[in-house]
Each structure stands twice: as structure tokens, then as C-alpha cells.
Amino acid sequence: MTPTTTATPVTYWTETDSPVGPLLLTAGADGALTSLSVPGQKGGRTVQDGWRHDAGPFRAAEEQLAAYFAGELTDFRLPLRAEGTPFRERVWAALDDVPYGATTTYGEIAARIGASRPAVRAVGGAIGANPLLILRPCHRVIGAGGALTGYAGGLDRKTRLLTLEGALRERH
């Protein structure tokens, strides 16, 4: 019997500046983005030993993010691959349907995926675990009463993103 070895999947990474701070992007060997994290993010990623620093796989993402922050892009067209439980993946897919400049609630996301009313808390947990901030718009999910609740990247960033998209008025 010959021993089998499993190769560790390659993770590429780069960092790019943005108006909400530096963004850490990761991708697999296929070029699909696997995460976008910000400093101080709850559950965010940090560069690991063995990751390969290479900006090449991220050119389109950097261009689209720059256009988004300039107010010129409202819909990302990038290959995304976030891995989670089937429930989390359903929640994350529902986030993709929330249009630029709009907001939705945790309860509306639960209803959209056919989850029961008591599952709203689990929906919130799945949204909080979204590994692709900004690209998969969890910042567009607000509390039932319109309150800006929970955002792994911080409420200040959530406010800035919603203001950029015109979903919030500038607060003075």
C-alpha cells in the first residue's frame, strides 16, 4: 500500500487600499476570491504562512473595488468561492440579491431562503460569518426597526458603505 499525500490548496493574497482601510483579499488557485477582510474584523482573515503574495489574480477585483468606491460601479462581476455550511451558503447567496443602494432586514433574508421566524438569529450568525465583505453585501442588512446593527467590519464601515451607496444620508 502506498502512502497518499494530500496537497495543501494554494492561497494567494494581496492587500489594496480603500476608503474604509486596507483590504486583504485571498483567492484559490482557480482565481476565485475566497475572502475580503478589513483590519479589526470580527472573524477576519490574516496572512498565514504558506500563502503566496501575488497581486496578479486580483487585478479585476482591485479595478472593480476602485470603481465601486468612486461611485462608478454598482454590481461586482467577480468569481467568488466562499465555503460554509449549506445553510450559510443559502444566506450568502441571498445577500447577492440585495441591490446596490437598498437595504433589507435579517427577517427578510430568513424569509427569502425559506427559514422559519425563529431562524432569524441563525441568519444573523451566517451573515456575520460572511468571508467576502463588501463583495457579498452583508452591510446592506439592517435591523427590523431600521437600526444599523452588527457588522463584522465595524458599524463605522457599515455606515460609510451605506452612505456611499446612497442608502443613508450623510450624518453630520
TrEMBL record:
Residue ranges of every copy of the Methylguanine DNA methyltransferase ribonuclease-like domain listed in the record: 12-81
Keyword Methyltransferase: yes
GO biological process assignments: DNA alkylation repair; methylation
GO molecular function, one term: methylated-DNA-[protein]-cysteine S-methyltransferase activity
Catalytic activity: a 4-O-methyl-thymidine in DNA + L-cysteinyl-[protein] = a thymidine in DNA + S-methyl-L-cysteinyl-[protein]; a 6-O-methyl-2'-deoxyguanosine in DNA + L-cysteinyl-[protein] = S-methyl-L-cysteinyl-[protein] + a 2'-deoxyguanosine in DNA
Domain Methylated-DNA-[protein]-cysteine S-methyltransferase DNA binding: 86-167
Top enzyme class: transferase
Keywords: Cytoplasm, DNA damage, DNA repair, Methyltransferase, Transferase
Pfam families: DNA_binding_1, Methyltransf_1N
Entry annotation: catalytic residues: 138 (nucleophile)
Localisation per UniProt entry: Cytoplasm
InterPro entries according to UniProt: MethylDNA_cys_MeTrfase_DNA-bd, MethylDNA_cys_MeTrfase_DNAb, MethylG_MeTrfase_N, MGMT, MGMT_N_sf, WH-like_DNA-bd_sf
Predominant localisation class: cytoplasm
Miscellaneous: This enzyme catalyzes only one turnover and therefore is not strictly catalytic. According to one definition, an enzyme is a biocatalyst that acts repeatedly and over many reaction cycles.
Family indicated by similarity: Belongs to the MGMT family.
NCBIfam families in alphabetical order: ogt (TIGR00589)
Protein name stated in the entry: Methylated-DNA--protein-cysteine methyltransferase
Organism: Streptomyces parvulus
